[in-house]
Amino acid sequence: MRTFDFSPLYRATVGFDRVADLMDRALSADLAQPTYPPYNIEKTAENGYRISIAVAGFGSDELSVDLKDGALIVTGRKTEEVEDKTFLHRGIATRAFERRFALADHMKVTGASHEDGMLNIDLVREVPEALKPRRIEISGGKAVEAQPVETKSVEAKAAEPVQA
């Protein structure tokens, strides 16, 4: 397997250690990662996302969603069944699991719901005002305060063809 040395990145940058750690984990992860339970990640809006996890057989009280150190951790622990059942076929897996999702900066979990065997976790990216793009007006003599720029208008202008 190929390994990468990220030490030059650490020497030449400040504050990007989390990105390097994420890349290091992704490249060194075992290829046989667990596939249970299956999940989808979808984009629901410009800054909205949803993680949907198939958790058939689990009740809401047996599931846990935690946010710790920039990671979303979803765990499921099935309570012991007291009833004595005889299964002819048991195809619904109810084994314990833990799924981890690394979240980018400024990602916020807005809610979670459990319905029809699916655990849906909604996330939104909230970029602070200080990090949003600003346009600085150029005046003849005095400096003018920077005004917030609408991101859609900047993207739309960037997409317009340049006329010579």
UniProtKB/TrEMBL annotation:
Per its UniProt record, what InterPro entries does this chain match?
A: A-crystallin/Hsp20_dom, ACD_IbpA/B, HSP20-like_chaperone
Lineage, top-rank taxon, reads Bacteria
Q: Where is the SHSP domain?
A: 30-141
Please give the SUPFAM superfamilies that the UniProt record associates with this protein.
HSP20-like chaperones
Query: Could you confirm whether the keyword Nucleus appears in this record?
Result: no
The UniProt record lists the keyword Transmembrane helix: no
CDD domains xref list: ACD_IbpA-B_like
Assigned keywords, A-Z? Stress response
Record-stated family: Belongs to the small heat shock protein (HSP20) family.
Q: Identify this protein by name.
A: Hsp20 family protein
Task: Please report the organism this UniProt entry assigns to the protein.
Answer: Paenirhodobacter populi
